[in-house]
Amino acid sequence: MAIALIAIVALFFLFAGIFTDYLWYDSVDYTAVFSGVIVTQILLFVVGAVVMVGIVGGNMLLAYRMRPMFGPGMFGGASGADRYRMALDPHRKLIFLIGIAVLALFAGSSFGGQWKTWLEFVNAVPFGEIDAQFKEDISFFMFTYPFIRMVLNFLFTAVVLSAVMAAIVHYLYGGFRLQSPGVHASRAARAHLSVLLGVFVLLKAVAYWYDRYGLVFSDRGFVHGASYTDVNAVLPAKTILAIIALICAALFFAGVVRPGGMLPGVAFGLLVLSAILIGGVYPALVQQFQVKPNEQAREKTFIARNIEATRKAYGIKDSEVIPYDAQGEANNANVSADSSVSGVRLLDPNLVGKTYQQKQRIRGFYDFPDKLDVDRYPDPATGNMRDTVVAVRELSGPPAEQDNWINRHLVYTHGYGFVAAPGNEVDAEGLPNFTAKDMPVTGPLVDQTKLTETRIYFGEHPSGAEYSIVGGDRNQELDYPFSENNGTGTGQKNTTYTGKGGVPVGSFFNRMLYAAKYGEINLLLSGDISDKSKILYERDPARRIAKVAPFLSLDNNPYPAIVDGRVVWIVDAYTTSNAYPYSESKSLEAMTRDTVTDPRLVVQQPRDQINYMRNSVKATVDAYDGTVNLYTWDEKDPILKTWTNAFPGVIKPKSEISDSLEQHLRYPEALFKVQRDVLSRYHIEDPDAFYSGQDFWNVPNDPSGGDVKQPPYYLSVKMPGSPNPSFSLTTTFVPRQGPNLAAFMAVNATPGDDYGKLRILRMPSNTTVAGPGQVQNNFQNKFSGELNVLGLGQSKVRYGNLLTLPFAGGLIYIEPVYVEIAGGSGQEPYPILRRVLVGYGSKVGSANTLEDALKQVFADADRLPTTPDNGQPDQPDQPDTPQQPNLSEEELAKAIDDAQAAYNEAQTALTKNPPDWVAYGNAQKKLADALKKLEGVNLSNASPTATPSPTASATPSPSGTPSPSATPAASPSPSS
């Protein structure tokens, strides 16, 4: 009775898991995926279970029926086998049924797990390309070959298990005995096992034949793909071994009609010997004595095949390499004519997340990610698109003192608001100049985009809870808090979810299912759940898309955008494979890892080793109601066509992408990282040059991030020959053996005719152009004095993204410098933009604004590119190259003491209640005068007694916004 009850409970929980999955798919209108996958898995489970049970169980029954008719002692007395048989024989049917059931479960589960391989096989679409060796369409290797290997592996397992289980049955029932001086077996047992071994060897012959096709994935040679040894030794060896295996199989079958073990023994010996000599020794000799002494010449043809296949498979065959003789000195005419840097993005999305948190968090239960996103929105003044750093205000969960089940799941259900700031400007304090902010959301961007729905029920961490109960009759969901009574009190606005997303949980049955799913009795008993209530779960955009499209790989960086007045998450999705002939296979995780990689989403990749990748799908998730849309992006991709055959109607055609959505689509970061990794070697198309490897590149390490790759950057770039800047993804390369710049690469990231075009500016080999690491060192050496002055106290100098851009016939480096100041009592420090560093050739500049830094570098130009008015106060002109002030040690110490004293005066003025703003302003002026004296001084060489260490603290301004100007920091600390 107890066992039956346990079984019923277990089955109910299993049913609850499956049926709630169905309800979820129904809520997002993707039941076709659920039913398609489930039906395929069930069919394959049944086929796998039936075939495995039929083969193994049939051979066990056959062995039992072939048992010799004798009693114990026929071979000279009762043996151990007789005792085992007598103990098991009364229960043999039960044991057989249990064993068969377990076998069916494992075999069916294993075969059912191959549903992707099956669907790709039956829905395969030709590539229209053939491989270089076998002249087969690429689809054979992508879809047919994996299925054949799957079937062969399954049959091998079935035959091996059959042989083992048949041998056990024969042993138990006297078919053969293990006794001195050898094995004694009945003729029936010998015949049975000979047939099974013959079938195994026959399957091995088939496997040898198809192993020939698998050589296109070989890693034996200099590159991936069939090498000289594979084609000239292994390929004929596999053919010969297939023929020998057929002969051996025939010998095993002949052993059935000819008594004795001679023929099976000969077959076994021949098979093993030929596998060692022909399959192992011969290819090794060819590799050692023919290939190694002349590897470059022998492998040239196969390296060329690998280069061509790799460039096709990773979508880089149309990349354009442009010789670029970067000028070391600026040509005044070129500088005057090139205004492309005027709108360059200075806000570093990987740093200013803490600033957004400090200035726009509003309440402690809201949160922003540490790493923000870059999109494009129109400038209110000109209407031109410009780089914008965007984020949404998500809910991290209720305050600790209010953390109970009702608050966590029924009250604190969603985030609120879209926050944006143009990337090329800051306000007078070095803070983002927000164009969308606060609660309710206000700002010029809100009016431009007609943003009407700002609630964030679906996001990267939407409420800190696994699920939320929304809707219903009670207006109990916290919408947003607000101040009242002139700021002396607080209130909150409540709301009720009315979106179409979510699963109804008004019925007792559904509540019982979800109570079982989450192990939460409150779901069943709570009176706050009404007939109109819904449950929201699986709310992370990437997870939602992974469930509705399990055959796709996902980018690890979903980003929010305003589309048709609503906030939507945009996620790039890929088709990947590791079965493209001759293409180089690499780790997807390793190729996409850098200083901004989010490890949370690595699991979204169905496979790690890949040798083919396409950005075939653009996906969106509505932040309010969770609606998921999948759109075809690469209409030529055969893998995507294969999956659209398997799931018709699931992925919408490209023509259904609205204009409002298209203007926020961008070239995906993960694909670009993969392509730049591959192009570090495969920009070389000549096999001889490729073999030498002298011109291979590396992605440089992040100058501010340690021994990790520098991430690519989204920014507007004007490439040589282009009339206007375009929103692009950019990266740099350095030689394998040096820090100099080898190349600059950009891809047009804006949808249009030029979208996805990879352009590589290649530096001449006979000139030296400084790489990112060298430029960073140059900045730190030249400006260590003023950077250390910025770093007085306990705050830190944080280097922003070091941007590289083609400019005026050369390359310009631009790096924002932030000071991370204390955020106040109990709050984390946050960065403010304090300086902009510029380098061009041998000249460098440092100023409060990009425009002033450019003036230092290009002082002789007739007309400089102007930057937008960012609200910063005018700064005094500085010389072309900062000069070391001629200060004695005493004067230096006094200047530092003056700076310390002014800083302390400012802090004292702020501690008064109310703050003394007049005294604060006077102290700020004194601090500015002291800092001016110290500009250009290298404090690392100063007397240690002259180094102050004030304590940093929050410095609110009259407007209520912390003012960073009097908040120094300690020593430069690279951002991470």
From TrEMBL:
<feature type="transmembrane region" description="Helical">
    <location>
        <begin position="233"/>
        <end position="254"/>
    </location>
</feature>
<keyword id="KW-0472">Membrane</keyword>
<feature type="region of interest" description="Disordered">
    <location>
        <begin position="939"/>
        <end position="976"/>
    </location>
</feature>
<feature type="transmembrane region" description="Helical">
    <location>
        <begin position="193"/>
        <end position="210"/>
    </location>
</feature>
<feature type="transmembrane region" description="Helical">
    <location>
        <begin position="94"/>
        <end position="113"/>
    </location>
</feature>
<comment type="similarity">
    <text>Belongs to the UPF0182 family.</text>
</comment>
<keyword id="KW-1003">Cell membrane</keyword>
<dbReference type="GO" id="GO:0005576">
    <property type="term" value="C:extracellular region"/>
</dbReference>
<keyword id="KW-0812">Transmembrane</keyword>
<feature type="compositionally biased region" description="Low complexity">
    <location>
        <begin position="942"/>
        <end position="976"/>
    </location>
</feature>
<feature type="region of interest" description="Disordered">
    <location>
        <begin position="863"/>
        <end position="886"/>
    </location>
</feature>
<feature type="compositionally biased region" description="Low complexity">
    <location>
        <begin position="865"/>
        <end position="885"/>
    </location>
</feature>
<dbReference type="GO" id="GO:0005886">
    <property type="term" value="C:plasma membrane"/>
</dbReference>
<keyword id="KW-1133">Transmembrane helix</keyword>
<dbReference type="Pfam" id="PF03699">
    <property type="entry name" value="UPF0182"/>
</dbReference>
<feature type="transmembrane region" description="Helical">
    <location>
        <begin position="150"/>
        <end position="173"/>
    </location>
</feature>
<feature type="transmembrane region" description="Helical">
    <location>
        <begin position="36"/>
        <end position="64"/>
    </location>
</feature>
<dbReference type="InterPro" id="IPR005372">
    <property type="entry name" value="UPF0182"/>
</dbReference>
<protein>
    <recommendedName>
        <fullName>UPF0182 protein Psi01_19820</fullName>
    </recommendedName>
</protein>
<feature type="transmembrane region" description="Helical">
    <location>
        <begin position="266"/>
        <end position="285"/>
    </location>
</feature>
